Amino acid sequence: MYSTTYHKPASIEDAIAALNGGEDTKILAGGQTLIATMKQHLAAPSDLVDIRAIGGMSGISAAGGALTIGAATTHAEVASSAEVKSLCSALCDLAGGIGDPAVRHQGTIGGSLANNDPAADYPAAILALGATIKTNTREIAALDFFDGLFTTALEENEIIVSISIPVPQKAAYAKFPQPASRFALVGVFVAQTDDGVRVAVTGAGEDGVYRHQGLEEALGSNWSASAAAGVPISPDGLMSDLHGTAAYRANLIGVMAKRAVAAT
């Protein structure tokens, strides 16, 4: 066994001080990945800094044509939010399909984005909706945030505070879940926004979540399931593993894109 010092700061300033004061500190939000890796002795942080009690880190609000979601807001809170349902029901549907009830009541949107699992659901939504990730020091556009498998633009000891999501004209998410984990074997989020059409794919790319240019161009000209069906999906750059080959995932991208568009 190993020892870990637990911190529960009441402010961002206290959290930063705790992060800087330990030898190997980790931020604890929902803990759905971190605690599991610690149990398997794949991570042994000297300090855990629990950010859930910090004021303003959770909650959902709407103003100026955008949703603001605190980083410590749980998936269950997003899924059940009347404001999210009214302004971007696709995000409710996505959050409601993450894991199981236990995961949804502990996991947080900020933790999911910071972890950037290549099969996570939220990265596809954030990328397709053109969201902005706000930290304790700056704002990062979604397009600049995701840097590859489990990698983001976050600097050491930088904390996600909230996410600002422009309200789309239309949006939907379709996922083919891996039966055991409920992670996306392939998930496709489509969004028609004031800045054009965006289509983001999770669960398939070798480098994690990405935008699909061919689907964006087709749906930008003709927002329909038939237009999505006519786009060739190359297996190049897609993952192959025991759950599915790159060719299988390529086919699923087309199927999930059609389903997502049809759902809007």
Per DSSP, the total helix count is 12
Beta-strand share of residues: 25-35%
Overall 3D shape: globular
The CATH architecture of the largest domain comes to 2-Layer Sandwich
Order of strands, widest sheet: 4-5-10-6-7
Low-confidence stretches: none
**CA radius of gyration:** 18 Å
**Major sheet details:** 5 strands, antiparallel
Mean pLDDT: 95
Number of E-state strands: 14
Q: How many angstroms separate the termini?
A: 51 Å
CATH class division of the largest domain: Alpha Beta
Q: Could you say how many structural domains there are in total?
A: 2
Category from helices, strands and their pairing: alpha+beta
How would you spell out the order of helices and strands? EHEHEEEHHHHHHEEHEEEEEEEHHH
